[in-house]
Amino acid sequence: MGRSPTSWLPLLLFLGASVIGCIHCNPNYKEALVKSILFFQGQRSGRLPATQQIRWRSSSGITDGHLAQVDLTGGYYDAGDNVKFNFPMAYTTTMLSWGVLEYGKRLGSELSNARTAIRWATDYLLKCATATPGKLYVGVGDPNADHHCWERPEDMDTVRSVYSVSAANPGSDVAGETAAALAAASLVFRKADPKYSALLLSTARKVMQFAIQYRGAYSDSLGPAVCPFYCSYSGYKDELVWGAAWLFKATNSLYYYNFLKSLGGSDSPDIFSWDNKYAGAYVLLSRRALLNKDSNFEQFRQQSEDFMCRILPNSPSSSTQYTPGGLMYKMGASNLQYVSSITFLLTTYSKYMGSAGHTFSCGNMVVTSNTIKYLAKKQVDYILGVNPLKMSYMVGYGANFPRRIHHRGSSLPSLVNHPQAIGCDGGFQQFYYTSSPNPNILVGAIVGGPNENDAYPDDRTDYSHSEPATYINGAIVGPLAYFAGIYST
């Protein structure tokens, strides 16, 4: 059956009255934006500055790197634990940087806070890339020991093992992502701090060369130090594409363009995450085709649109499930990580399409920039409380939000209220296995989210739904800035 150019109307009906009929009752995107960036202060490792606003956190991990006789202090704990996994941390940094590059003008007064959040990560990633010639440090803290404890980061007494990749033990995935993060951040600081920007870019080039020259998955090199926590399930080719795409954007060097072309064959994803970067690279590179009318990048425009057709609910090639309440549903564990990352691609591609006056088709279904924008808005609004439970999945936003998140620092009393150390096992009985709300509110944290039926138990032992993560927030900052700019309150 053929469809008319108005074939996107069923999509609008799917999105529901919460989007179409709620023009005057949008969530407060600006407030959510402020809080989404503030969240990163709660994840900080290292010596905290006087400007720290999340006061229940204190300095931690201040001897990180000591076992390898290098300084690896700083960076972020990835989620509710006390480990620094560089693979998701670098992805978080890339997405935060992309958000600033795409939506910097809409960030307003939050631009400096976003830069600060990025720099907290890149200062650490620079250390990891330059501390020892021939090595890229990719993590601190034994994840298996850490996951057997429930203690504050300030009390950590588990071994702070140091993990690295090298020519003999390669990690093209983590190196490619680290290069992407440093290159993307170099663009963020190009005008604000040219000297720092130059350091980021020169380091990104070296790390990317390492990723290209010594090929292999870091999961194979490091085994139980990263698996099953952050295995590179999709392999490392997507990080080579992603890293090269960002270095091409930062340098305009034909070397990276030719390298992208040399990788041959393309993946056809219906997901975007810390593990699988293909769709992100396609959208990033499609900008050249849409806005610069550069035919050399047409393949990436086509691949971006193939991806969109797999996401849009009424597309004949859709492979994406939605909950009854309209939330994109990709996987049971921490589903909102996929929602936030894919939503970033939706808003960004919608923006490119709008600027170029471009439309495309999924079969006989005509897709406009608004088609994609409405779907993105539905996802953001759902996270902020426009859902069957009327629950905000951002901690500290709205009246009804998760109170028992799977997060050590949030669930245990602060040093101010409980100065005595809480040992490895000390936190379980009194603070983990209790129905009491967490004593510390991790403002801005977005949790893993509801299940496929829009249900959410608010149970800290149910980590797949109740655990926040840096990479969920890293991807949502851009869309929040986008909608804050459109629907200012």
Automatic annotation (TrEMBL):
The active site is at 406. The keyword Repeat does not apply. Residues 29-478 form the Glycoside hydrolase family domain. It catalyses: Endohydrolysis of (1->4)-beta-D-glucosidic linkages in cellulose, lichenin and cereal beta-D-glucans. Pfam families: Glyco_hydro_9. Its EC number is 3.2.1.4. Residues 1-25 form the signal peptide. InterPro entries: 6-hairpin_glycosidase_sf, 6hp_glycosidase-like_sf, Glyco_hydro_9, Glyco_hydro_9_His_AS. GO terms for molecular function: cellulase activity. One of its GO terms (biological process) is cellulose catabolic process. The keyword Signal applies. It comes from the Eukaryota. Keywords: Carbohydrate metabolism, Cellulose degradation, Glycosidase, Hydrolase, Polysaccharide degradation, Signal. PANTHER family: ENDO-1,4-BETA-GLUCANASE. Belongs to the glycosyl hydrolase 9 (cellulase E) family. This is Endoglucanase. The lineage of its organism: Eukaryota, Viridiplantae, Streptophyta, Embryophyta, Tracheophyta.
